Amino acid sequence: MARPQAKAARPTPRSAPRFVYAFGAGRTDGRAGMKELLGGKGANLAEMSRLGLPVPPGFTISTAVCTYYYAHGRTYPPALRAQVSDGLARVERALGRRFGDPANPLLVSVRSGARASMPGMMDTILNLGLNDRTVEGLIAQSGNARFAYDSYRRFVQMYGDVVLGLKPETKEEEDPFEVVLQAKKRARGVTLDTELDADALRELVAEFKALIRTRRGVDFPEEPQEQLWGAIGAVFGSWMNERAIVYRRLNEIPESWGTAVTVQAMVFGNMGPDSGTGVAFTRDAATGENVFYGEFLMNAQGEDVVAGTRTPLPLAELERENAAAYAELGKVRRTLERHYRDMMDIEFTIQQRRLYMLQCRVGKRTAFAAIRIAGDMVRERLISTDEAVLRVEPEQLNQLLRPIFDDGEKRAAVAERRQVARGLNAGPGAASGRVVFHADDAIAGAERGQPVILVRIETSPEDIGGMNAAQGILTARGGMTSHAALVARQMGKVCVAGCEPLEIDYRAREMRVAGRDLVIKEGDYLSLDGSTGEVFIGQIATTPSEVVRVLVDRSLAPADAPVYQLYAQLMKWADKARRLGVRANADQPDQCANAIAFGAEGVGLCRTEHMFFGEGKIEPVRAMILATTADERRAALAKLLPLQRADFDGIFREMGARPVTIRTLDPPLHEFLPQDEAGQREVADSLGMPLERVKARVAALHEFNPMLGFRGCRLGIVYPEITEMQARAIFEAAANVRRDGIRVEPEIMIPLVGHVKELERQADVVRRVAGEVMRETETRFRYLVGTMIEVPRGALTAHEIARVAEFFSFGTNDLTQTALGVSRDDAGRFLVPYVAEFAIYEHDPFESVDREGVGELMRIALEKGRRTSPKLKIGICGEHGGDPATIAFCDELGLDYVSCSPFRVPIARLAAARAALRRV
Ligand code: ADP
Ligand code: MG
Ligand code: MG
């Protein structure tokens, strides 16, 4: 058959499409770029053959056949049989052996391989083609009966399992073949498989076959062609096995991709002490160190290395066993790295001192290894700095920022059964501390210098102080975008959310774990692994992240921090490549300092209401809410003014010349009042008013749907004095700071605007106050007034709003709620199955922006806004601003910046760079 590119020149003998792609022994049809068709394994075997590496010849049946197979009731395209025969005949000619020939048999492996690697998820069969006659031929070929029967018993075992379905039927049952094998070893008085002689192995073949007959009611097929097609069918069938389906779901691999099947001539690592098999990484996959790292076993085949029955040896020892093979493997390592320009994961086999390559793929690695390898490869001139940026997944950076549990200690905790439950890995990192159930206890604990873990059924804005004081946060309810998860990410806190098995009793100050006879009391130690969601009893020692020690704690000098240096270098390359600006959502000076340390270029969202929960502020806020007249309200606001001004002063000084976007009051007022009687009595006492009045006000503020209620700019329009006070606090602080020679440019942002008239009214207040403050303080400062685009009407009328707004910022949390008509706080019950089970949305729309719906509103708003005002500054400040997929979308749309929590700023910088590089 002709190669694809030669088709025009030479007529192909058949008109049927090509399903079979040859590799090795003089002709290779595929290449690395053909993973869609040949799967990763098939494509890379072809590529290695092209590179002239020693690959046993074979052919790959394409994924198109898998698609056909499932579309046609598990049958094959008619042209396949002839193409497989041709492929096999070519291998036979190349090796001078025939498939099924009793005198000189060719044996093959039948291997699965999807586009994305699915390690161990599908099945491979080795030594196919053996039967009672061809085994004699293999003995004649090799002069080694023990080897021949070892191969035969492995084949019957694998075929019996994978194709004929003889597997353990319950979790408790041992592998039936292993039971027979163990019995044989016992009968022969040996412990290792390798100690069984040819006779014992021949008996095993017969016993395995008998076992298959009694347990499965079928005869083991002696006919090699029948074996081959049985194996091919089993590999295609394995695409739909339970394990593969679950793996695909977890890794977001589409079912439609299908698997390819590779049929390849066998080479034998079990031919004696001068043969073996192994796996290796061309660099250390954990640390990234440029050392050859791997394991091997002599006199072994295939899975023996990972099966754990015999302990494999470190690769370095291969040099002693077989210096020539080791040297050749070193050459292969260099060839592959130069060619793929990446760290590779390889499988090899040595047959009687000769090296063969059986697989290669780009190696999986930790974040530490990823940045180190990328940096080293730039220096080695293998890749450009842009490529280095593309080599590190943004989310991986989390690993570099979080404190981590000491590996040995964590393993010990697992061994001691101290793992009690598992929730969502909402805030990565590791934390140990004493359990408290109330925010004020967390604060008190922290003041005593005690590490605490704040455990709540769920958290609310009132808990912020306690969350800030805690080492880690654990909640029983709520998802990845719950209040606890959101705040934890902004604070950079370790958080395990939605840990359903916890039964928390606030009154008794204790919790139980469903299904375990266990009570955890206040003061007991608990450890959270926020990267995995695991919860442990007791303490586990942690190691702080180098990057955080250098940037945030300043307890480590950059020169003493190799990981930090690699991080800093990567970020420099990323900053060079990105177009989008990156800001942070920060409400306090310390958060601003963190944001700057992580490279934020401004504050994209300062939520003024978070300040209200600070020291001494909640009382005047409550007095303001409980006021019945405008005068009373003004008096309360007057008390609040200096406190807010001080907050902004601190933020401006921290941020210097960087822009700071401040949102005016947004949440519904009832959030600032206690809902329980005891709390209400406290408020009444402290403000010297009757309890009844507090109760009546709380009742009056009750809303059926607060998310769509009296909140956002609606508050400032009905009570303009609130906006007035906030604007005054901002501008007075700006004037103060300006007088100290610091250039500030506050951006006042009005929330929840749907109609231009709403913005007009609020902008009038803000601009009037700005003028007043400039006159009173005799200073001039620049400022902007803009709006959030977070309700559909605002997006659809953006051309009108842009007449007044000097900037837009997409509030994609609310925009998602209002566009989808979904209340985030009530969405858990259906949104989880919507994504996981019904695939209605590909991702949780509160984590990654729904491009077709919410994204379309963003596009409309951007286009209409910029039509009115071409230079309109546009950003995003919803939680989505830290999501790499959303960042790529914002880059595509042409936003000016994204804003996210401080600890996600490095991730956003990297994601923005990768988006820009991918677009060109
Ligand atoms: P997986 O995808 O599970 O790694 P593979 O197809 O790579 O499955 O095969 C499993 C094992 O068998 C690997 O160790 C591989 O190197 C080995 N193997 C596969 N094909 C051959 C062959 N033709 N000769 C020798 N060993 C092979
Ligand atoms: Mg493999
Ligand atoms: Mg909002």
Count of alpha and pi helical runs: 37
Tell me the total number of β-strands.
33
Helical coverage, percent range: 40-55%
Give the cofactors and ligands.
adenosine-5'-diphosphate, magnesium ion
Shape assignment: elongated
Strand content: 15-25%
Strands across the major sheet, in which order?
14-24-23-16-17-18-19-15
Instruction: Summarize model confidence as the mean pLDDT.
Output: 92
Radius of gyration: 33 Å
Low-pLDDT segments: 1-12
Biggest β-sheet, characterized?
A: 8 strands, mixed
- The SS-based structural class is alpha/beta
Distance between the termini: 38 Å
Provide an overview of this structure.
This protein is an alpha/beta fold. The protein is 45% helix and 17% strand. The protein has 37 helices and 33 strands. The strands form seven sheets. An eight-stranded mixed β-sheet has the order 14-24-23-16-17-18-19-15. It has an eight-stranded parallel beta barrel with strand order 26-27-28-29-30-31-32-33, surrounded by eight helices. Strands 1-2-7-5-6 form a five-stranded antiparallel β-sheet, sandwiched between helices. Helix 36 links the parallel strand 32 and strand 33. Helix 25 (630-655) runs parallel beside helix 29 (720-739), helix 29 (720-739) packs across helix 30 and helix 32 (798-804) packs across helix 35 (854-868). The protein is elongated, with a radius of gyration of 33 Å. The two termini are 38 Å apart. The model is unreliable at 1-12 (pLDDT under 50). The site of one magnesium ion (MG) has 6 residues, from helix 33.
